[in-house]
Amino acid sequence: MEKKDYKKEFCTLMDKFAFRYSRWQVWNDFLSLSALSLANVMPGPENDEREKRYLSIMNSYQKEDQEAFPKMLGLVVLALEENPEQDFLGSLYHYLNLQQEQKGQFFTPYHICHFMSELQFAGDGKETQMEEKGYISVNDPACGAGAMLIAFANVAKKHGINYQKQVLFIAQDIDRTAAMMCYIQLSLLGCPAIVAVGDSLAKPFPHPDNEVWCTLFYHLNQWRFMPGKAGRETADGRETADGIETTGGSMERTMIRLSGNMELLEGADGQLMLCMEQAS
Ligand SMILES: C[S@@+](CC[C@H](N)C(=O)[O-])C[C@H]1O[C@@H](n2cnc3c(N)ncnc32)[C@H](O)[C@@H]1O
User: Fold this and answer.
1) 80 alpha carbon to ligand 1 midpoint, in Å?
2) What is the C-alpha to C-alpha distance for residues 24 and 30, in angstroms, rounded to an integer?
3) Labelling 104: which of 77, 177, 231, 269 has CA 20 to 30 A away?
């Protein structure tokens, strides 16, 4: 069977907007729409506000253009489903030459990220950390599209760690475009993650000025982020570290509360993937 070229298909969809909107605007609107719909999968007090933001972006496009956005997200889902070992949006960003808009911003090639993650696992006590805390955490304070964290997830899986339950991902980027790419990819790969938009030198996470996005798997595993809290303590059977608390997961209970057109699919290896519902 012929292999699908998802990047090419994505570009074909983007080209439909040509002459009416800039690629940069379409890319950013695509990221915002996708991030908002992924965040709204989890019911919460911010749902209405997110829905309003979604509609205001969507309504700035003509009807025939609107249909392209879910198709574009569908291609990202398919690409990551076919090969989770890649920074699909990051490489698409370069493929579309969008880094020119951000003064030559450059993301690390995936194979280098993979190599660097393997080094992280080479005898630095990840197993001890797992035993002590029941989870490990990883932080990229200049996350770009999330290549380093995606590689870390895949390498953790290779080392027998279920990253969907046992790893907490923290990501931050000063550039909102980059942070949104990271949020979308970590969401689709089922990483429990907090993605913060903000300057990690002046306002490192957790800072009250950070714009914070939590993935569905962060909520499903009942991680809790407590601003201002640092260090590690144990109280009432709950563990905290670096302002992050986990109370253990209850995935089945929360799964049925998914909304929108997203669903969770389980792969042959038991790995869950956030997918768009198939039209029947
Ligand atoms: C070279 S890219 C690396 C991205 C990603 N870690 C990777 O390896 O693909 C550097 C990233 O750092 C971000 N950045 C630069 N200064 C920053 C700051 N002060 N706070 C947060 N992010 C910053 C940029 O927006 C850019 O996305």
Assistant:
1) 22
2) 10
3) 77
Q: What is the 173 CA–ligand 1 centroid distance (Å)?
A: 6
Q: Is the CB of 268 under 6 A from ligand 1?
A: no
Q: Count up the domains in the chain and report the number.
A: 1
pLDDT above 80 (res 264):
no
Task: List the beta bridge partners of residue 263.
Answer: 275
Residue 44 corresponds to which tokens in the numbers above? 């919460």
pLDDT at residue 247 is higher than 80: no
The answer to whether 73 touches 276, Cβ cutoff 8 Å, is yes
Strands of the sheet containing 193-197, edge to edge, are 136-140, 167-173, 193-197, 211-214
Q: What is the CB-side half-sphere exposure of residue 235 using CA atoms within 13 A? A: 6
In a domain, 93, yes or no: yes
Range of the domain at 60: 6-102
Any atom of ligand 1 within 6 Å of the Cβ of 200: yes
Lowest pLDDT segment from 51-60, 143-152, 246-255: 246-255
Residue 202: what are its φ and ψ, rounded to 5°?
A: -80, -35
User: Residue 121 domain-assigned?
Assistant: no
Is residue 232 domain-resident? no
Q: Distance (Å, rounded) from C-alpha 86 to C-alpha 113?
A: 10
Structure tokens at 66: 């609107």
Rg (CA), the chain: 18
Whether 56 is in a domain gets the answer yes
pLDDT over threshold 90, residue 10? yes
Q: Which residue has the tokens 């880094």?
A: 99
pLDDT of residue 232: 32
pTM above 0.70, yes or no: yes
